[in-house]
Write a structure and sequence with these properties.
alpha+beta, nine-stranded mixed β-sheet, binds adenosine-5'-diphosphate, binds magnesium ion, binds zinc ion
């Protein structure tokens, strides 16, 4: 197979993502009062509603709807005042009532967008405009260093519920193929779930990875989910097709599943783009199918081929009244939105004079940002940049430092009392303790001094002794 860079000179990759996020921070499930946690023993958190017993009536979780409205506002979506729940029918044991409650053509949030800043090595995945210039393509405007901003449209974010978790035993890599038995845990069934669907605006695996990362940062900052790709509270399907440069029609897409890390998302799309290019260049056709990413073998394999459109018999759920969101409800959600990562980054740059990359790194994760701001409290303004430097370059190597310890070591670094290497040594000594770095520096006699009046007599004495011992060297000059 050709390499990605070579493929993308001749072909344009068109990528759209479908991202499911469980609202893990809510107390209860979407339509019942069951505890919203997967940590309990299997099938501990169930009731007639989430088990789909006939006659059980669902009641929508108000906090979940507030969360999705917050997600929509944070991603520049239009909040739809009128929408409703639909039943999407299918038969599978992970949903005992045989339909998933989801939304129809109108979702709570429609037509948003996120702007991606693509820089560094990843920016090179999108070939330079001059290399691929063709009709029908809009070049992104690039900075001198190759970085660019890609606006990615979001089609919708709708509210739905998660299905039960199935555990396939005895098969390969936990898949149903060759499994000897399957177990079902209904604790997850009915978990509030939001699905975000992008327009097919992404053009490189790196852009897809960055989009997911930005979404994770945004949702975590909103506090609506822990957004863990590893544990599955955030899940992503990657859709991709190819078309010749200059072509405006969309090609046939494949859909990638089993993506549980940012790297998998990137690598699965990279593999799939190269695979499709090979098929097309050999005169073959790409089938519309769902493929499974196998991280250990670094390839995608067919899961199922889509021959006809699925018929879910989608219809409005007669048990759930249509919504009529009030201005007050939407404003209440808006007021709950904290400062988002981009705004935080800009503020760190403007107020503290931080470099863009450092500011962005500190603003990305709400826990890191809160830690950083706590370390800043009470520290002199001129130490802010050093605190940021310590946060970016030293703190990630340690497990349990406190903001006060970071502020203290940054203070010592800022006045050149210790070197960077010594700072690392001192942090290793205080990590996981309540000890003050300054006390450790004094204990170990590490403190350096740049005080000239203290140093001069020492230098004089050294020179004098040198002069006596080595008259020639001392006499030169
Ligand atoms: P499906 O019904 O197969 O789920 P959708 O039309 O709902 O397909 O689109 C799902 C995702 O795939 C969206 O993110 C959309 O932007 C993207 N997508 C749709 N068509 C294409 C295509 N031809 N190439 C790449 N991505 C596509
Ligand atoms: Mg799909
Ligand atoms: Zn329940």
């Amino acid at each position: 197979m050709k390499r990605l860079a070579e493929v993308l000179r001749d072909w344009e990759a068109v990528i759209g993502l479908e991202v499911h996020t469980e609202l893990t921070t809510l107390e209860t499930k979407m339509f019942c009062n069951c505890k919203n946690t997967h940590d309990d023993p299997p099938n501990a958190n169930v009731c007639p509603v989430c088990l789909g017993m006939p006659g059980a009536l669902p009641v929508p979780n108000r906090a979940a709807i507030q969360s999705i409205v917050m997600a929509g506002l944070a991603t520049n979506c239009q909040i739809m005042r009128h929408s409703m729940f639909y039943r999407k029918h299918y038969f599978y044991p992970d949903m005992a009532k045989n339909y998933q409650t989801t939304q129809g053509p109108v979702a709570f949030c429609m037509h948003g967008h996120l702007d991606l800043e693509v820089s560094g090595e990843g920016a090179a995945e999108r070939p330079a405009w001059e290399d691929v210039a063709a009709d029908g393509e809009t070049p992104v405007s690039r900075e001198r260093d190759g970085s660019y901003v890609a606006p990615i449209r979001i089609l919708r974010i709708h509210m739905e519920e998660d299905a039960a978790k199935m555990v396939h035993v005895g098969g390969e890599e936990g898949r149903i193929t060759a499994a000897t038995e399957s177990l079902i845990d209904y604790n997850r069934c009915g978990t509030p779930l939001i699905e975000l669907v992008t327009e097919p605006d992404l053009r490189t695996p790196e852009e897809a990875r960055l989009f997911m990362e930005k979404l994770q940062q945004t949702f975590r900052t909103l506090g609506i989910s822990d957004c863990s790709l590893e544990s599955g509270s955030m899940r992503c399907d990657g859709n991709v097709s190819l078309r010749r440069r200059g072509e405006t029609r969309l090609g046939t897409k494949t859909e990638m599943k089993n993506i549980n890390s940012f790297k998998s998302l990137h690598d699965a799309l990279e593999y799939e783009i190269c695979r499709q290019a090979e098929v097309l260049e050999e005169g073959g056709i790409v089938y519309q199918e769902t493929r499974h990413w196998e991280p250990s073998r670094r390839r995608t394999v067919v899961m199922r081929v889509k021959e006809t459109a699925d018929d879910y018999r989608l219809f409005p759920d007669p048990d759930l009244a249509p919504f009529d969101l009030t201005d007050d409800f939407i404003e209440e959600a808006r007021e709950k939105i904290p400062e988002l990562p981009d705004a935080k980054r800009d503020r760190y740059m403007a107020e503290l004079g931080l470099k863009r990359a450092d500011a962005a790194q500190l603003a990305a994760d709400p826990n890191v940002a809160a830690f950083f701001e706590e370390a800043l409290e009470g520290a002199p303004a001129k130490v802010a940049a050093t605190i940021a430097n310590v946060m970016v370059n030293l703190v990630p190597s340690f497990g349990a430092l406190t903001p006060a310890q970071v502020a203290s070591i940054a203070g010592l670094l800022a006045e050149d009392a210790v070197t960077f290497a010594q700072a690392r040594e001192v942090l290793a000594a205080v990590d996981g303790t309540e000890k003050d770095p300054e006390a450790v520096v004094d204990e170990r006699g590490l403190r350096q001094t740049n005080d000239v009046s203290a140093l001069e007599p020492i230098v004089d004495e050294v020179l004098e002794r040198c002069g006596a011992a080595h008259p020639k060297a001392g006499g030169v000059g």
